[in-house]
Structures
1.
Amino acid sequence: MIYSGMLNVLESIGKKGLQSTRSLRDATSFSYRIFARLFERRAYNSAVSMVLINQIYFTAVQILPLFLTVAVCLSIAFVGIIGEYLLRIGLFSFFGRLLMGFMVTEIAPFVTVLLIALRSSSAINAEIAVMKVNNELNTLAVFRIDIINYLFLPRVISGIVSVVLLTCLFALIVLTCGLIYAGFFFNMSAGDYIAALLESTNFFDLIAMLVKSAVFGFFIVMIPIRYGIRATNELTSIPVAVLNGMVNVFIAIVIIEVLSLVITPMIAKLI
Amino acid sequence: MSCRHQVGLVSREAPLISNLSVLENIALIRQYHSRLSRCRAEELARKCLRRLQLEDLAGRRNPSLREEQRFCVMVLRAVMLEDSILVLDRPFEMMPALGESRFLYDIIHKVAEMHRECHVFDYFLNERRYMGGSGHEAENRT
C-alpha cells in the first residue's frame, strides 16, 4: 500500500513536470510566432495600424493621470528617503549613483510594468477571452483575417512601446524630483547634481533598462493573450482565463526581474 | 461553388465584432484584404449602408442593433469581400420573428451587383417560408 502510494506521488510529480514542460514549449512557440511576425512587413495594413493606435492610446495615454501621480509620489518618497539616509550616514556622494543605478534602472521599469499589467493586461485578457466565447475569433477566421496580425501584433507592439516610453517618463520624473530635493533640501546646485548624475551614468545599464522594459512589455501582453484564447465556449471560462493569465503575468514579471539582475552584471563583465 | 471565389458567410457562427462599430465592421474587410486606407474603406462602407437606408446605424455597436438590422449589416460585411459568394446560413434563426422570406430577397436584390452568387442554407422545415418570395428556392439542409 505504501509502495502504491509512493508510485502515485511519483506519477503525479511526473505528470505535473510533463504538463509544465509542454506548457513552456507551447508558450515559447507562441512567443516566437508573434515575435517573428513583428518584423514581417506584409503583416501591417491600415486595419492593423488602426488597432495599434487605439491600443497605444488605451495602454500608454489613458493611464497617464494615474501613472504621473504614482510616479511623482514614489519619486518624492524614495528620493527623499534615500537622500536623507545618505546624508545621515555621510555617504551623500553616492546620491547620484543610487538615483541612476537603483531608481532609474530598477524601480522605474518595475513600477511601470506593475501599473500597466494591473490595468492593460487584465483588460486584454478579458477582451480576448470574451471574443473567444462570443465566436468573434471564428468571424475573423471565416473572413480570412489573421488573428495574429490583426489582434495580437498591435497589442504586443503597444505593450512594448508603452512600457519603454512610460519607463523613460518615470525615470525623468525621478531625476526631476532628485534635482528639486538636491536644490532645496540638500543645498546642491543644479550643476553639481547634473555632474553627479553624469558621473554615475553607465550607458550599458541604460541600454539594459530599455531592453528589460521591452521584454516586460512583450510578456505582459503575450501571456494574457495566450490565456485569453484558451477560454472555452462557456461564459464561466472567462474569469478562469483572466485569473490564470494575471497570475502568470506576475510570475513572469518576477522571473524577468530576477533574470535581469543575474544576467546584466554577467554581460557587463564580459564587455 | 467555385473554390477560387471567397465565401462571404452570414451566420450566427460569425457574429459582428463587438468592440467595433457597424461602420468599422463593414470597412474592416476592405481595409484588411484590399489594403484600403481607413477613410476610403469607411466611405465605401457608408455607401453600402446608404444602399440599404441604414446610414444612421454607422456609429452603433452590435448589442444595440435589432435582429433585422444586424442581419443587414452582416450581409453588407459579407459582400465586402471581392467577387464573393454570399452564403446565408439559417437566416430565420438569426431573425426568428421574421414570418417569410420577402425581406431576405429584398436585401439580396439590393446588394445583387456586390456578390457573384447567393446560396441560402436552412432546415427543411423552413421550406414553406421561402416559397412566398420571388420564386427562388432555398437549398435544403437535411
Note: The interface with chain A takes residues 6-7, 9, 11, 13-19, 28-29, 31-33, 35-38, 41, 77, 81 of chain B (CB under 8 Å).
2.
Amino acid sequence: MITQAEFGLAVILFLSGALLSSHRKATYILAFAASVLVLLLGVAGFTSNGTFWQYTLLPGISLRLGLDRLSGIFMVMAAVVWIALALYSLDYSRLYPHKSLSAGFNISLLGMLWILTARDGFTLMIGWEVMTVAAFVMMLASGKYYQQSFRFLAFGEFSFIFLLIGFAAMYISSGSISFEHIQRGGMLFMVFVSLGFIIKMDIVPFHGWMSGIYGEIPDTAAAVLSAPVTLMGVYGLERIIPAIPNSEAWSLVLIVLGAISAFWGGLQAVAANKVRLLPAYSTIENNGMILTAIGFYTISKGSIDPSLHYLSLFAQAASLVLALSHTLSKTLLFMSLGHAKEAYNVHTIDEARGVWSGVGKTPALGIVIAALSFSAFPPLIGFVGEWMILETIFQSYKFPGAATAFFAAISGVLTAMAIGLISFAMIKLIGYTALGYDHGRKSQPMAKTWMRITETSLQLLIIACGIGLPAVILFFGYPELLSGLLGVPKPLALVSGQPLFGIISPTFIAIIMLILIIIPILVFIANRKAVRKVHSWNGGIPLDEQEFFTAQAYSQILEHILRKVYRTREVSLGMHRRIEVEDILLRPIRSFTKLVQKLGEGEALVIMNGKISAYVTYILILFVLAFVIGVIVM
Amino acid sequence: MNWWPIYGLKRRLTERTAYGSPVTVGRIPASRFGRSLFVYVIDVGSSNALNFEIDALESPQYNIHRFGIYMTDSPRHADVLLILGRPVKAMIGPLEETIDQIPRPFGIIVLDDCPDNSARLHYADLPNVIAEFKGVPDPSQLLGILINCLSVNRK
Amino acid sequence: MNILIGVLQREENEYLVVLKDGKACLDLSTGESTEKEYPNYPLLKDRNLLIKGDPVSGYGVFRFRYGPVTSGLREAGSFSLYTYGEKILHATIDLNWKHREMEESMTGKNSHDAVTLSEKVCSNFAVSHSVACSIAIENAMGIRANTIVRNWRTVLIEAERIYNHLHVIYKLASAAAQKVLASHLSALFEESLRINKALSGSRYLMGINQINHVNFLPDFSTIKKIISDYQNLSIHFEKLYKHSLSNPNFLDRLHHAGMLSRNQALSLGLSGPSLRACGLKDNLNGTTGEHLISLPVVTQQEGDSLARMETRAEELVNSCQFLIDHLKVSDIWDADSEAERPETKSQGEGVGISHSPSGAVGYYVLLRDNRVLHLRMFTPSYPGMHAVSEALKEQVFTDFPFVYDSFGVHFTDAAC
C-alpha cells in the first residue's frame, strides 16, 4: 500500500514538475521531492518483492510494476544522483532557464523510474522510450547543435528497436514477456536485448552518440546522459543476462567487448582536449569494465565449484560497485566541470585552468576527488571497483576451458591498459583544470550556494563509500565477501576469492592514514617558520602564460607513440603548426550520417519539389490507397 | 686499450696539493653548513674565461667532490652563489630574481674579470658578499676560495 | 671558395669583408650581384641580436624558454623553443643578454689597448680575436708582422684550437652520458690549459700577441717539456677517441642529430669545422700567413653532430702533431731584418681574418692618429647561432645539447 502511494506521489510530482517547467525553481524542487520519494521506495525494495501495480492493456498484454532487491539497489543509486542534480539545477538553471531543460529533466527521471520498477518487457520499453525522448528534449535546451541531439535520438531508437526485437523473440519462444519467465527467452532474445542495453551503455562501437555530449548542451543534461542513463543499460543487463542459462559463449563476447570498450575509452580520453569530451570517454571506459564484470558473473554463475560460485558473487558485486562509483563520480565530475566551465565560459581543458584559485575550492576539489576516484586512488570507491574487476580477471584461471582463459587474458591486458590510460587522462584534468595556474583568469559571478552544497555532499559520499566499503557491500547484499585477516578485524576487509586470493580494506587504509598523519602534522606545527613565496624558477625570468606547458603537449607524447591508432597528423602552414588526432571507430558512424543526410536531401529534393502537380499526385495516391485499404478491411 | 677502471686508476690524475685562498672569505650570517658546499654558478656578462675555468674546475685533477663541493643545477639548492663577470644591463633583473630564489642563509662570491673597465656596470648592493676576486682566478685559486669558505663557515 | 665574413657601412658605401684564397679583402658591395654571389649576405647585412624572432602559433603550441640563467648553458643567453610536445618546431635565440658593446668600448682606444681588449671579447678565442685585430691594425699601418711573430701566432692559434676542440668533445661526451669518457676528456682539457700556461704564461694565451710583437717566449727547456706534454696529450686522446667510437650508444646519439645540408651551410655563411663537416673546404689555414708544414684540411660528409665531432677530433690530432714539429724547430726562427721595416702609417684602414676553432674571425679597423676611429668585428658564432637555430628544427628536446654543443659557438662571441 505504502509503496503504491509513494510511487503514485512520485509520478505526480515528476509530472507536475514537468508541467510547471516555466517556474524554474518549482520544477526542480518538485524533482527533488520526487527523487527523495524514489530513494525511500528503493530502500523499501530491499524488503519487499513483487508486483504492486498491474494494468491490463490488451488481452494477453498487461503492464506490471514492482520492486525487488535489484531494483531497490539501482533506485537508491540513481535517486542519490537525481537529488544532487535537482538541487544543483536550482542554481545552474539560471544559466539555462529553458523550459525544455526542466521539463525534459523531470520526464526523463520519470522514465527511468518506470524502467526500474518494470516487471515485464513492455513496461520496460515504455519507460525506455520516455527516457530517451525526454533526454533528447533536454539536449535541445540550448537551441543549437541539433545534429548531435538527433544522433543521440537515432542511437536511442536503435536501442529501442533491438529491445523490441528481443522481447518479440522472447514472446515467440516463451509466450510471455514478464521478467519471471526470462530463462525461457532463448538465444535470439539474449543477443538482441543485450545489444539494446549495450548501445545505451556506450559500448564501443556504439559510442557515436557520445559526441553529442561535448556540444553546447547544458551540464545537467550531460550529467544525466552520462550517469543515470547508462546506469539503465547496466540495470537491464544485470536483470536479464544472468537469468538466461547456457550463455557462456555470449558472456565471453560481452567480456571481450567490455574490455575493448574500456581500452578504447581510456585511449581516446588521453587525446581529448575539450572539457566535456574527456569525461564522455571515461564513461565509455567505466561501462566497458562493468560489462566485463557482468560477463564474468554470468559465466561463473550456477557453477558447483565453490570457488567459482564465490567468484560469481564477487563479479556481480564488482559490477555493482563499479556502477555506484561511476554514477557518483561522473555526476560529481560533470557538476564541477560545469561549474568551472560556466564560470570561465570556455570549452577546452587548456583554457579552463586553475579552478582552485580562479573559480573556487569546492568545484576544484570536486574535480580532484572525482578524477582520483576514476584513477583508482585509495581509499575512494573507484579504487575498490577497479581493484575488484582486476581481481576477477586474475582469477579467470579457475575456469575450465582454453577459450575462457584466452579471452579472459586478452580482456585483462586491455583492462589494465585502460586503467593506466584513464589515470593519465585524469591527471591532465587535475593538473590543468583543477590545480593549475589560473593566469589571472576571472570567473563570472554566479549563484552557487546549491552548487557548492551538492558538490560537497557528493565528494563526502564518494569518500564515505570508499571508507565505509563494508557498509556498501552489505547494502548490495554480499555479506560473504567480507572477512578479516592479518590484524584487520572482520568485517572490514574485502576478500576476492576462496581459497584466499586477494584482500583490501579501504577502511583500514583510511584509519592508518589518519593515525600516521598525526606525527607529521605535529612536527609541521612545531616547526612552522615564515614562508617566503617566490615565482617558479625558469631561467631568472618569471613565466608568462605562453610559456606554460599546454594540455595538448602533455598528451602529445602518447599521441606520437601510438600514432598508428590515433592517426596522428602534423599539420603545418607556414608558421602555424598543430597536431590532429582522430577516433577511427567513429568513422563508420560519420560516413553513415553523411549517407543518411545525402539520401534525405536527395529524397527531399525529389519528393518535396515544390511543383503543384506532384502534390496533387500525392493526394490522389493517398486517396486511392485509403480506398483500397478500406475495401480490404471490409 | 685497457679496461676502463685499470686505465683510469693507472693515470692517477687527482692532485695532492693544498689549495690556498688568495682572498679572505667572510662568514655567511646564520650559517649552518656542515661538511658540504653547494654552489650555483651564474654568468652575468663574463668574457667566457671564467666559464671555461669552472669547466676546468670540474676535472679529475681537482676532484672537487672529495672536499664536499658540488655544483647545483638550480639556485634553490644552493648555499653559495658564484657570480661570474660584471653584469650586462639586461642581466640585472635575472640576477636579482636568482638571488631571490636562493634559500636563506646564503653567501655570494663575486669573480670580477674586468676590474679595470670603468665602462662596465658595477654591482649595486649585493647581499651577503663573502668574497670578491679581481681578475680570472686559476682553478686552484678558485678551489682555495671555496675550501676556505667551507672551513670558515663550518659550525 | 670565397666566404663573406662581414658587411659594414662606411660613409655612404657598403663594404664587404671577404675571405678570398686565404686572404682578407675589403670589397665594395654591388647590391644585387652581391646577393647572388654570397648567399649569406642578407644574414650579415641585417645583424639582429634576436635570431629568428618570429613566433610559431597553433593549437597546443607553446614557447619553452631555456635561459638566460640555466646550469646547462651557463652562459647568459636564452633559447625560446616552440613546441607542441616533444619536437622543437622553431628556435629563437636571444643574444641580448650577453651584449657587452665591445665594439663601442674598443673605439677611441689606442691600437695597443684595442688589441688587449679584443682578447676579452671571447676569452676562449682570445688568440684568434687578437690576431685578427692586430693583422687589421697592421694592415691599416701598412706593415707586415715579422717572421717570429707570425710563427708564434700560428703556434698560439693551433694551441687555442686544441683546447677548444677538446672542450667541445668533452661537452658532447657528457651530454651523451658517457661519464668515464667525459672525465678523461676533462682531464685532458685541464692538461691542455696547463700547457698553455707553460707556453705563454696565461692559461688562455691572453696578453701575448701584440702589434708586430709577442710578449712572452718560453725558453728551450720549457719548450722540450711542452713538446713531450703535447705528445702525451695526443697519444691519450687518440686512444680514448678510438675507444669511444666503438660505443654504439654514443655514436647513435650523435648520428643524424642536427643535420645541415651543404646548401644550408653555404646560405648561412658558415666557416670552420661546421662547414667542413658538410664536405666543403674553406681555406682559412693560410690566414695567419705562416705554416712550415701545411695543415691538412679535414672534411666529413654527413653534416650532422657526429661529423662535426669527427672533424674536430682529426683537426685536434693534426694540430698536436703540427705543434710538436713546429716547436722542435722554433729555436731557428729568424726575425726579418730590422732594416727592411717600412714606415708605419698612423692612419688608414685594414681588415684581418684569423682561423678560430669555430670558424673565421674578421676585423675591420679604421685608424687615425694611431687611435681606433671605427672598428667592426665579425665573429664565427653569429652565423653559428643561426646554424644552431636552423639545425634545431624538427629535433626532439633530448637532442638539444648534441646540436648546440657540436657547433662550438658561444653567446659571448656571438653577441660581442
Note: Chain A touches chain C through 26 residues (CB under 8 Å).
